[in-house]
Design a protein that fits this description.
With 204 residues, this protein is mostly helical. The protein has one domain. 77% of the residues lie in helices and 0% in strands. It contains 8 helices and no strands. The longest helix has 25 residues. The radius of gyration is 17 Å and the shape is globular.
Length: 204
């Protein structure tokens, strides 16, 4: 039950961020719901397909579909208020990233993946939906533009996997892994940390 609650909380937060992007792109209500859905569910959908969890949780449990719909409708009608809360939405997005790196890594480990692939699946769960959202919205995915987003997710997922392998309680593992991801992401936002980018011209 705890796993599902964490998953649904992450989906709701991510879905709001996707719906906000849709509103800013001037999309209609269908576009808002689509971007909310792919942002909230895309990473988990990719993870489930890759680890063989068929059908994906997004299709097997009605709650996984209703949560992003609710987030999309909420954003569609209250987007002026949400648009003025950019910083708060960013913080919520960081929480969503932390939640997804936990649930993604744990589910991958539960399906028998070794630590490295399980940690990668935790990262994919966290960043997959945002990447699909950005592509559909006609933007270069944020994870390719220097934002420290994927790295904190991978670090958090790795801690979760290692802690789980060592037999630590799930609560402890979640706090350590999710906390690492969350603090790193929030510090990166606050201090404007960026991943290394190429310097100079690529022309020959």
């Amino acid at each position: 039950m705890t796993f599902v609650v964490l998953d649904l909380a992450g989906i709701f937060v991510f879905a709001i961020s996707g719906a906000v992007v849709a509103v800013r792109k001037g999309l209609d209500v269908f576009g808002v719901l689509v971007l909310a859905g792919v942002t909230g569910l895309g990473g988990g959908f990719l993870r489930d397909l890759l680890i063989g969890a068929i059908p994906p949780a997004a299709l097997a449990d009605w709650r996984y579909l209703m949560v992003p719909v609710a987030a999309g409708v909420l954003t569609f009608y209250f987007h002026p208020t949400l648009g003025r809360m950019e910083r708060q939405v960013g913080v919520l997005d960081a929480f969503g990233l932390a939640l997804f790196c936990i649930t993604g890594a744990l589910k991958a480990a539960e399906f028998g993946l070794s630590p490295v692939p399980a940690a990668l699946m935790g990262m994919v769960t966290g960043i997959g939906g945002g990447m699909i959202r950005d592509v559909l919205a006609g933007r270069v995915p944020a994870v390719f533009r220097g934002e420290l987003y994927a790295t904190p997710a991978l670090a958090g997922a790795a801690i979760v996997v290692v802690g789980d392998r060592l037999g630590f309680p799930i609560g402890v593992v979640a706090v350590l892994g999710g906390g690492t991801c969350l603090v790193w992401r929030l510090l990166a936002m606050w201090r404007h940390w960026q991943a290394p980018m190429p310097t100079g011209s690529a022309s020959v």
